[in-house]
Specification:
This protein is α+β, with helices and mostly antiparallel strands and 115 residues long. The chain has a domain at 37-106: Orthogonal Bundle (Arc Repressor Mutant, subunit A), CATH 1.10.10.10. It is 46% helix and 16% strand. The chain contains five helices and four strands. The protein has a two-stranded parallel ribbon. Strands 2-3 form a two-stranded antiparallel ribbon. The chain is elongated, with a radius of gyration of 16 Å.
Amino acid sequence: MKKEIKSANEFFDLMEELAKNPKLHKKMPSKMIFAENYDILNKVLSPKRLELIRTINDNEHISVNELARLLKRKQEAISRDIKILKQMGIINVKRVGNKKISHIEKYYVVVPLVG
């Protein structure tokens, strides 16, 4: 069962429900990803990758080369970061003609405060 979050209160209610019964993770909204801890989160979501995510979100149908030009980074660095974000399930890539186009898959990251 997928549940889309419509308000902050619904988000906190869902998190409370999941904390009480972790087996309910299947109710996790489709646009949410869990990080085990802040160390993992900090490694995956560096400032450059967060900037990349925001740019992908703000620019539909933008290619890797266009992202590199816009962000003033090397194409190889953009490709590497896209690969990492794709492995984490945060973004997805599809081929449109001869371009690889990235789009956001997950909009929320949940990290336990303790654990």
